[in-house]
Amino acid sequence: MKTTKWLYNLLLISSMFFAANGFAAAQTQPLAAAITTDPVAPMIDVIFNGTEGNYLIFTVKASVPGKSYFTIRNDAGQDLHREVYYEGNNLRRFKIERGDLRSVQFVLAINRKQIARIFKVSTTYSEQTEVEEARP
User: What separation in angstroms does the CA of 80 have from each of 17, 26, 29, 70?
Assistant: First the structure.
């Protein structure tokens, strides 16, 4: 009887030990599955570099994980430039005619998602008058 009680306690303790370890392993398993590496997110940086005559100069840096579409649009929604970017880093300089632009939109579209950078354009002219005494 003592042996069976001892064996029963041993089985009870070992089953509790394995159940506790199995429960702990079951709890840590979803955490391990939740840790995944996300693909590289698309990125677009647009820098206004100034003007050259009647043109606006922009530098566009884009980093894309796959095939994407890059578009430059005016304030009326018309495409001024469109091209396909492939995986990797892209660096381009654009000259956009100022004309009567009120805004310029740079759009990077990938997998039904769009990343946009919008620049408002306003032109002001100032008149400066200088008067100096003239000596005969």
Answer: 69, 56, 51, 11
pLDDT digits (tens, 9 = 90+) for 104-129: 999 999 988 889 999 999 988 888 88
Which tokens sit at 102?
A: 């009120």
Residues 11, 13: Cα–Cα separation, whole Å = 6
CA-wise closest residue to 47 among 96, 117, 115: 117
Beta strands in 17-98 (DSSP E): 43-52, 55-64, 68-74, 79-85, 88-97
All domains of the chain in start order, with CATH: 43-120 (2.60.40.1930)
- Rounded distance between C-alpha atoms, residue 31 and residue 52, angstroms: 56
Tokens of 75: 């304030």
Strands 79-85 and 55-64: unpaired
Tens digit of each residue's pLDDT (9 = 90 or more) over 59-102:
999 999 899 999 999 999 999 999 999 999 999 999 999 988 99
Q: CA angle at residue 119 from 115 to 125, to 5 degrees? A: 175
